[in-house]
């Protein structure tokens, strides 16, 4: 009987070690999945911000039928338009109605930059626009 007294303890320790290894592996996989999901969510938000910019550019073209030079539209305003590069450059007497940039209705702090390039001019990616208008849109994550 003395020969078997340590076998049960060794068996329990082996089972506990296997259980611990399995738990650690599952925790690691879960952590990686959460990180991938965060990256995927951020990419999707940036994509939809760019799509929103693309729609804004189409609306701009509908309202302004003649475009002679490259136009950039940015969506990075605060309510008081203090961070908008297109309005109130001297930051005096800024009125939100003076802003030519959009407000963010989703309030997710993502923004977009859109460039509308007329025919024959150079686009931001250094290509020449060979259509009536070329629209280049990019979604941007929140600035830290």
Attribute tags:
single chain, alpha+beta, 1 helix, 3 strands
Please, could you describe this protein's structure?
The structure is a single chain. The chain has one domain. About 16% of the residues have low confidence. The protein has a three-stranded antiparallel sheet. The chain has 144 residues and is α+β, with helices and mostly antiparallel strands. The protein contains one helix and three strands. 40% of the residues lie in helices and 15% in strands.
Helix-and-strand structural type? alpha+beta
Mean model confidence by pLDDT: 77
Q: What is the quaternary state of this protein? A: single chain
Main sheet properties: 3 strands, antiparallel
Could you spell the SSE succession in H and E letters? HEEE
Helical stretch tally: 1
Widest sheet: strand order? 1-2-3
Helix content: 25-40%
Give the strand tally. 3
Distance between the termini: 68 Å
Strand content: 5-15%
Number of domains: 1
What general outline do the C-alpha atoms trace? rod-shaped
Instruction: Compute the CA-based radius of gyration.
Output: 28 Å
As residue ranges, the low-confidence spans are: 78-100
Brief overview, please?
This protein is of the alpha+beta class. The protein is built from one helix and three strands. The longest helix is centred in the first third of the chain and has 57 residues, at 7-63.
Task: Spell out the blueprint of helices and strands.
Elements: H1 7-63, E1 71-75, E2 111-118, E3 133-140
Antiparallel strand pairs: 1-2, 2-3
């Amino acid at each position: 009987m003395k020969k078997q007294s340590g076998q049960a303890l060794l068996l329990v320790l082996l089972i506990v070690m296997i259980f611990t290894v399995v738990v650690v592996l599952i925790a690691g996989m879960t952590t990686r999945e959460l990180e991938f999901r965060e990256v995927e969510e951020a990419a999707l938000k940036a994509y939809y911000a760019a799509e929103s910019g693309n729609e804004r550019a189409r609306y701009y073209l509908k309202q302004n039928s003649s475009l002679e030079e490259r136009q950039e539209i940015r969506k990075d305003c605060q309510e008081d338009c203090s961070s908008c590069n297109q309005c109130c450059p001297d930051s005096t007497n800024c009125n939100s109605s003076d802003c030519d940039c959009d407000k963010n209705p989703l309030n997710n702090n993502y923004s977009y930059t859109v460039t509308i390039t007329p025919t024959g001019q150079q686009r931001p990616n250094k290509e020449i626009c060979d259509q009536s208008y070329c629209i280049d849109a990019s979604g941007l994550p929140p600035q830290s």
